[in-house]
Amino acid sequence: MKQLNSTVQHRFKSIKTIIGPGILVAATGVGAGDLATGALAGSNLGLAIAWAVLLGAFFKYVLSEGLARWQLASGKSLLLGVMIHLGRPVQWFFFGYLIIWTFLVAAALMSACGAAAHALLPFFQKADTGKIVFGIASSVLGLSLVRVGGYRLFEKVMSVCIGVMFITVCLAAWKLKPVMSDLLSGMFIPSIPDLSQQGIGWTVALIGGVGGTVTLLCYGYWIREEGRTQIEELNTCRIDLGVGYLMTAGFGIAMIVIGSRIQVEGRGAGLIIQLADQLKEPLGQTGRWAFLLGAFGAVFSSLLGVWQSVPCLFVELIRIMRNENTEPSDSNQNLDPTRSVWYGRVGLMITVLPMIGLLVGFSRVQKVYAVTGALFVPMMAIALLVLNNNEEWLGKENRNRIFSNTALVAILGFFIYVGCLTAKKVLGG
Predict the structure, then answer these.
(1) Which residues have C-beta within 8 Å of that of residue 17, sequence separation ≥ 6?
(2) N or C: which end of the chain has fewer CB within 10 A?
(3) pLDDT tens across 77-102, in order?
(4) DSSP secondary structure letter of residue 332
């Protein structure tokens, strides 16, 4: 019996090792964006917009696979590759973009965590007060877990959070009994029901927000933590990314289903409470509490992922801009970004400064950060088209094939098309 238990535990650890970084990608990318944006988009546009979630998950898979292939084949992170080969103007541009994005995403995550925690523990009479107090508490707790427990504690907490959120939210969507023909049509027949600025905006927010944006770069740090450094481990990365983005797509579609079946008005910090209260009738009190628990698991796991990984991006970028050695080697073992003094400083800034965003409306913060994050997707596509097609940098056997290049060009084409539609609407054409 003991031998059987040992075998089961060993296999579980082996599976966890394979899909671990992909789960972290899903847990970080699925959160405030998918919860709020999915529900609000579903309420405004219905099930017809479900295709945007699948497309967004596919886009992120292509980008993440390209990132992993670059890092495993070249030995450099994608960020380092871009900064070295594309020059200093790109460094300064991305540094400015990263500052703006970090403030927006941190404010949105604090706001979402505060709203979800207040829904679970309604100690305050006003929802906005609860959002602010619990948002601050969630930010401080996230920083504490990251700094005290390191990567392994972070990984364990994230695994629990994503398990809770995926099961509870998907179960809630299933219990609402969506019309399957409408759902399948919405998943596989692309359309935007409302071609006004609102319809285009929610579509871009779904595609850009689902599965993360800038945090895609952090996948490179997580596979390095798992000891993946050789190109032979690329298939392992493809498996764990596939699992992660399937979970991401499932969660996003579940939130669209939930939003389409109940009225979501986007009333600030009360949005999550409103969702839970309207789910009480079809799901009962137990279902209501399960949804609230899943909602908090979703947004807190996303916050925790950002608090752990985004400072790593700043540390590496600062080292690059200061012309410090950033390439791993046997003689250069002190490159772990979490050991840098800048890691602590950036983590503290992320924890404190975006608290100003708690004073802004929940729905507005969510949409602004999702659309801003969507701008990163075409930028990463361009970088992968440049870097991963260069045989000198990557090797002939590891460069992009026709499928990868076609998918990356499609990503660019989609965002150019949406940008033209947006400009036309703004100009009144």
Answers:
(1) 226
(2) N
(3) 999 898 888 778 888 888 888 998 88
(4) B
Closest CA to 34 of 197, 253, 241: 253
Structure tokens at 277: 């209260």
Stretch 50-59: mean pLDDT:
90
- What is the arithmetic mean of pLDDT over 188-204? 75
More confident: 87 or 180: 180
| List of residues 6+ apart from 272 with CB closer than 8 A | 35, 112, 115, 116, 119, 292, 295
Q: Give 149-164 pLDDT, tens digit per residue.
A: 777 788 788 878 878 8
As a 3-state breakdown, the chain gives helix, strand, coil percent values, each rounded to 5, of: 85, 0, 15
The string over 358-381, giving b where at least 16 C-beta atoms fall within 10 Å of a residue's C-beta and e elsewhere, is: beeebbebbbbbbbbbbbbbbbbb
More confident residue, 332 or 282: 282
Torsion sign over Cα 386, 391, 393, 394 = positive
Q: How many angstroms separate the Cα of 291 from the Cα of each of 3, 140, 170, 363, 386?
A: 38, 24, 9, 19, 43
Is 24 domain-assigned? no
Residue 98 belongs to what domain range? 36-426
CA distance 25 to 2: 34
CATH code of residue 344: 1.20.1740.10
Determine, yes or no, domain membership for 23: no
User: 335 lies in a domain?
Assistant: yes
Residues in contact with 380: Cβ distance below 8 Å, sequence separation at least 6, in sequence order: 63, 67, 78, 216, 217
Predicted model pTM: 0.83
Residue 36 or residue 322, greater confidence? 322
Dmax of the chain from CA atoms? 72
Which among 338, 258, 260, 266 is positioned nearest to 298, based on CA atoms?
Answer: 258
Count CA within 13 A, CB hemisphere, residue 197.
10
For residue 27, tell me if it sits in a domain.
no
Whole-number Å distance between alpha carbons of 306 and 314: 12
The number of folded domains in the chain is 1
Please name which of 196, 208, 206, 199 lies closest in space to residue 426, comparing C-alpha atoms. Answer: 196
